[in-house]
Amino acid sequence: MTQIFTTSSTLLAIESSCDETSAAIYQGSELRSNIISSQLFHTKFGGIVPELASRAHVQGISTIIAESLREADVSMVDVDAIAVTQRPGLAGSLVVGTNFAKGLALKYNLPIVAVNHIEGHIYSAFIENENIRFPFLALIVSGGHTSLFHVESFEHYTVIGSTRDDAAGEAFDKIAKLLGLGYPGGIHIDRLAKEGNARAIAFPRSMLREDNFDFSFSGLKTAVRTYVQKTLQHTPNEEELRNICASAQEAIADVLVQKTLRAASHFGANDIVVAGGVAANSRLRALLRDEAKKQGRQIFIPAMAYCTDNAAMIGCIGRQKLLHGVHSPLTFTIGVGSLRAKYRG
Ligand code: KG4
Ligand code: ZN
Question: Could you give all domains of the chain from N- to C-terminal order, each with its CATH number?
Answer without folding.
Answer: 10-122+307-343 (3.30.420.40), 132-301 (3.30.420.40)
